[in-house]
Design brief:
Layout (H helix, E strand, L loop, with lengths): L16 E7 L11 E10 L4 E12 L5 E8 L6 E7 L8 E10 L4 E13 L4 E4 L6 E9 L1
Antiparallel strand pairs: 1-9, 2-7, 3-6, 3-8, 3-9, 4-5, 4-7
Length: 145
C-alpha cells in the first residue's frame, strides 16, 4: 500500500501491471506446428520477479485430440516457462484456458513473451477463440525484487 507523501517508481509496486496484450480476433486453425497466438513485450529489470498470465478462449474440432498451450520466452523456439494440456468436453463452443507462471529477469531489457498452441495427438485442429466481447489476454505483472 502506498501512503501519502511516498514516491512511487513505475515497475516497483507489487501487483502492478507492466505490460499486456489484448487480442480480439481468433487465430487460424492449428495442428502439429506450434504457433504463437499472443505476444507481449515487457520492460523487465534483472533480478526482479514477474507473474505472466495467459487468459484465452479456445475451440477444438475433435474432442479426443491432445493439445498444449505454452508460455515461452521470445519465440516458439524459446525457453518454455509454463505449459498446460488443453481438453474440451465437446466441440460445441469455445472453452476457457487460463494459467500463469513466474519469471525472474536475467537481464534489463524489453522481454518478449509468447503464448503458443500445438496439437500433440489426434487429427483435429485447435483455434484460439477471441472477439471484441471475449478477448484473449497475455499480461505481465511485477511481483518483487
Amino acid at each position: 500500500m502506498v501512503l501519502a507523501g511516498e514516491t512511487i517508481i513505475a515497475g516497483k509496486v507489487p501487483g502492478e501491471r507492466i505490460a499486456g496484450t489484448k487480442v480480439t480476433a481468433s487465430s487460424g486453425a492449428i495442428t502439429t506446428t506450434e504457433t504463437v497466438v499472443i505476444t507481449v513485450v515487457a520492460p523487465t529489470v534483472v533480478g526482479r520477479r514477474y507473474k505472466i498470465v495467459a487468459d484465452f478462449g479456445f475451440a477444438v474440432s475433435v474432442v479426443t485430440d491432445s493439445f498444449l498451450a505454452r508460455i515461452r520466452e521470445d519465440t516458439v523456439a524459446g525457453v518454455e516457462l509454463q505449459g498446460r494440456r488443453i481438453a474440451a468436453p465437446n466441440t460445441v463452443s469455445p472453452w476457457t484456458g487460463h494459467f500463469e507462471t513466474e519469471y525472474t529477469a536475467d537481464a534489463t531489457e524489453d522481454k518478449t513473451l509468447v503464448l503458443t498452441l500445438v496439437r500433440t495427438a489426434g487429427t483435429g485442429t485447435i483455434t484460439m477463440a477471441a472477439s471484441g466481447t471475449s478477448p484473449a489476454f497475455l499480461h505481465v505483472d511485477y511481483l518483487d525484487g
